[in-house]
Amino acid sequence: MTIVLLVMALVVVIMLLGVPVGFAFGLGGFAMLALTGLDPRFAMPAAFRNLESFTLLALPLFIMAGGLMKDADISTRLIAFTQSFLGRVRGGLGMVCVVCCTIFGAISGSASAAIAGIGSVMIPEMVKAGYPRGYSTGLVACSSLLALLIPPSIPMIVFAMTAQISILAAFLSTLIPGILMMIVYCIINQVMCRKFKGLTIAPKISAGERLGEIGRSTKHAGWALFMPILVLGGIYGGIFTPTEAAGMSAVYAVLVGFVAYKTMTFKGMCGNLKGSMITSGVVMILLFFILMVSRIMVTYQVPQAMTQMIFSVTSNKWVVLMMLNVILLLMGMLVDDVSGNILSAALLLPIAQSVGIDPVHFAAISVTNLSLGNITPPCAPMLYLAGLIGGNLPLNEYVKPASVFMLLGNIPVILLVTYVPGFAMVLVNIFIK
User: Fold this and answer.
1) How far is CA 111 from the centre of its chain?
2) What residue spans define the domains of the chain?
3) Burial of 164 (0-12, 13-18, 19+ CB in 10 A)
4) What is the pLDDT of residues 161-220, one digit of tens each?
């Protein structure tokens, strides 16, 4: 086991040096096989078997759907619809950004898709209205995390598949936390906007004009608004499995783009499909190597050793949960949320179960913690992506406003999810158990 732990430490060092996560785990996996003398036929076929999953097929389909939705002009119409409700108050554009990322997350399940689809439109609009570019960029980066909490969530699919729990139950566990985080973000935005001088606010209009504006934007965005109803209604209504819903969302995006809105081109669709295949391939390579490493660590009883190590410090359930939160936050700073959730399900779930934590409850704890890692340096892929979308800004310009949303928005919700089980489990207990 000592060799396995030393190799894992080496994997962390390699990642900090800039080697992609998938290749770092690949090197670590083959090093473990060589140093421990294990037959590669022991670990590699098991990883392949885990990839041969109908459930896992939802991942590339949701990735593809996210790209197609941007080409179908769905994000622009969602923004116009939300702006008709919120755009005429001080700080309204910030709330529009938060709400649109939430709705977009309910369609794509991807934070990067939310940044590309919403951020590319909202950041220039907010800057034009007088918001600091750094603030706008930080807000988009943090709001994109809502796409990982509002189902369907790609990281949650990965966790559920690895832990062998119900995907539907896992989806429901982060729905209320995601909605609460959206509300908290909107409140923080309103408070922070008080110090911004010179914000441009759309002029007030009469109630009749307002209703007309809302009606026009609803009609304009009708096909886009039906998409989350189709995806989530199909899943929760028992009509589709999550995988079938992912396929339906991709087909629906193509139909809307070509037939309803006529904004999609064949060339653009082919480009999106190519990009989706590349992204899906990267994710599958990553999954394969992490699953291989996880099997080796389970063979050498690393999860059991970690459990004993934590229990040697304390056996108090609430303290153990705090230690798991710290481990997850640190893990989220080093690896992306997909690989982090695989490692969490393989290594940390047994520890949580040993103190009586329901696997679905721990899924919510894992995803809320690791989603925060997407915007927490040093890795912070979504934070850096938002910086690129926002005009290739220096990190110091948008990390401070992002930190405010993290500390006042994410951390309280993480603590609620962790220490108030009913907060995450209420919908699960109503609809599943």
Assistant:
1) 5
2) 39-431
3) exposed
4) 888 888 889 989 999 999 999 999 999 999 998 888 877 777 777 777 778 888 888 888
**What does each C-alpha distance from 116 to 112, 152, 387 come to in angstroms?**
6, 18, 11
What's phi and psi for 308, nearest 5 deg? -65, -40
Q: pTM score, two decimals? A: 0.82
Contact 166, 98 (CB under 8 A): no
How many helices (H) and strands (E) in the chain?
A: 26, 0
The three-state (H, E, C) secondary structure of 224-283, written as one string: HHHHHHHHHHHHHCCCCCHHHHHHHHHHHHHHHHHHHCCCCCHHHHHHHHHHHHHHHHHH
- pLDDT at residue 426 is higher than 70: yes
DSSP string, 127-164: HHTT--HHHHHHHHHHHTTHHHHSSS-HHHHHHHHHHT
Spatial contact of 145 and 123, defined as CB atoms under 8 Å apart: no
Question: 79 near 121, Cβ under 8 Å?
Answer: yes
Please, what sign has the CA dihedral across residues 61, 67, 144, 322?
A: positive
Cα–Cα distance measured from residue 105 to residue 279, given in angstroms and rounded to the nearest whole number: 18
pLDDT tens column, 248-289 = 888 888 888 888 888 888 888 888 788 778 777 777 787 788
Provide the pLDDT for residue 303: 66
Residue range 22-38: mean pLDDT, rounded? 80
